[in-house]
Design brief:
The chain has 168 residues and is mostly helical. It has seven helices and two strands, in the order H-H-E-H-E-H-H-H-H. A two-stranded parallel sheet has the order 1-2. Strand 1, helix 3 and strand 2 form a beta-alpha-beta unit.
Length: 168
């Protein structure tokens, strides 16, 4: 699915659908759908009552607040439709695009969605072949999972632990 299909104008007729398929979006899909990265947790500037730059409501990412008007006011009116302001970086389009546009947030560490962890049977626990309680420990940093083992290093570490155990 591309930005074009997500952001199509107008309602879609039920006759256009033959089936609906829900899948988990890949990181590449999310980046493809995104119009920019949200870098700031701020929403609205308390003095100007306008969206904060790089924030959760940024006009450069999600589109203008006012129809066919950029943030700085350099371009106003429908005659500038589609123009991207060189001063503030906001595209001059209808404010309705804010309902369809998405941004993305890069996380410092990977995380899991609650829907895959909890439920009648934990999908993630079933896929990994571990119990729900073990999965919960891993997710909340109480335990870890070893995915690759270096045999030589294991033997050296085991020998060092045995020597230390015999000293006491």
């Amino acid at each position: 699915m591309t930005k074009k299909s997500i952001n199509s104008e107008g309602p879609i007729s039920p006759d256009e659908f033959k089936a609906i398929k829900l899948t988990v979006a890949s990181p590449e899909d999310v980046l493809d759908w995104s119009y920019g990265e949200v870098l700031n947790s701020e929403t609205i500037n308390y003095r100007t009552q306008r969206p904060e730059r790089d924030g959760l409501f940024d006009e450069r990412i999600f589109g203008p607040i006012k129809d066919f008007e950029c943030y700085c006011g350099k371009y106003k009116g429908i005659r500038y439709k589609g123009v991207k302001c060189d001063k503030c970086g906001v595209e001059v389009v209808s404010s309705k695009v804010r309902r369809r546009r998405m941004g993305h947030i890069k996380l410092a560490t990977p995380c899991s969605h609650l829907w895959f962890v909890r439920g009648v049977s934990s999908v993630m626990a079933n896929i990994l072949g571990i119990t729900f309680s073990d999965l919960e420990k891993v997710l909340y940093f109480g335990a870890f999972v070893i995915t690759e083992v270096n045999g030589k290093l294991v033997k050296e570490t085991q020998a060092a632990l045995d020597r230390e155990f015999q000293r006491y």
